[in-house]
From TrEMBL:
Its EC number is 2.1.1.100, 2.1.1.334. GO terms for biological process: methylation. It comes from Psychroflexus salinarum. This is Methyltransferase family protein. It holds the Pfam family PEMT. The lineage of its organism: Bacteria, Pseudomonadati, Bacteroidota, Flavobacteriia, Flavobacteriales. The keyword Acyltransferase does not apply.
Amino acid sequence: MPKLKDVVLVSIQFFLMLVYFLNVEWFSLNFMEHFIWFYLGVLGVAISGIALLQLNVNLSPFPTPKVNSKLITNGVFKISRHPIYTGILIFMFSFSFWLGDGYKFCVSLAILALFYYKTKYEESLLENTFDHYITYKSKTGRFFPKF
């Protein structure tokens, strides 16, 4: 049974993503702007999709790690500790810019804040579950690569 905090965080996440798509207004930009923002959005979807496939049986919608799960640190997880969130953020922000939609941009900022809070909580649980998580955390960026 998931913890109440897990359910609340995931519920807020899905609510914000739903709200994001409620106000769809297509905005005409020049071809190059369409191209850039569209393909950045596609990149975001691809990153999330690859991360979902890599997690496989370790996947859970909740921050609390599944029992007997394995820490994945290769593939897209070598670049980002939370590549699913990274892909969602890239998609949401690029779609906001593509449409020139301030409303979607504000919802994107709200989900960024939620993901930051949610990952802090999730990482505290991961540190208690996996001995080498702190080392992984020191070498890998939260959403984007460390330089």
